[in-house]
Write a structure and sequence with these properties.
heterodimer, A: mainly beta, 7-stranded mixed β-sheet, B: mainly beta, 6-stranded mixed β-sheet, 5-stranded antiparallel β-sheet, 11 strands, about 0% helix, about 55% strand, globular
């Protein structure tokens, strides 16, 4: 158990809709990163939050956005869902940037 | 060039075999390095960090060559339970993952 929890675990949405995924980080961890993992691929970095500020972003369009709260939990929002957004979304928390990360169990999103 | 590249695999080996995975990275400013293990339809889990001096954890040995921007993982005496996908991870400000190498250990 990593102490990182994500909700929901599974979700089905229709193309064009919006979705919010949630992550509770491990106690004492101030850094949260989000990843998208398509079937058969490695996790792709979406963005990272450090102490409530965005601290790096991967090659994802602006319709992927996020927040980190004072308790260091985090949200990932995706607007205007596309079929290709279907994937496992992983949240990872770290005690700081540049350190090992611990993952939640992921949210499996299916866009139909 | 991809940020992190791994052997594509898959590797199919008998129990007891020794298997090695390789990984190269493009950003010379990378600061920390890891190997993660991912079981089917599960989240990645930290296997071990990789240090410049090399490090060992039981049957697992990791090596880092900064000059060549190369990381390796050696698994000795493979067990059935080692079957998984192994992900090479490189961190400069955030963690970047390779595509993973699938290992299947057979009886």
């Amino acid at each position: 158990e990593t102490g990182v929890t994500q909700s929901p675990t599974h979700l089905i949405k229709t193309r064009g809709q919006q979705v919010t995924l949630r992550c509770s980080s491990q106690s004492g961890h101030n850094t949260v990163s989000w990843y998208q993992q398509a079937l058969g691929q490695g996790p792709q970095f979406i963005f990272q939050y450090y102490r409530e500020e965005e601290n790096g972003r991967g090659n994802f369009p602006p319709r992927f956005s996020g927040l980190q709260f004072p308790n260091y939990s985090s949200e990932l929002n995706v607007n205007a869902l596309e079929l290709d957004d279907s994937a496992l979304y992983l949240c990872a928390s770290s005690p700081g940037t540049g350190t090992e990360a611990f993952f939640g169990q992921g949210t499996r999103l299916t866009v139909v | 060039r991809k940020e992190v590249e791994q052997d594509p695999g898959p590797f199919n080996v008998p129990e007891g075999a020794t298997v090695a995975f390789n990984c190269t990275y493009s950003n010379s400013a990378s600061q920390s390095f890891f190997w993660y293990r991912q079981d089917c339809r599960k989240e990645p889990k930290l296997l071990m960090s990789v240090y410049s001096s090399g490090n060992e954890d039981g049957r697992f040995t990791a090596q880092l060559n900064r000059a060549s921007q190369y990381i390796s993982l050696l698994i000795r005496d493979s067990k059935l339970s080692d079957s998984a996908t192994y992900l090479c991870v490189v961190n400069w400000n955030d963690m970047r993952f390779g595509a993973g190498t699938r290992l299947t250990v057979k009886p």
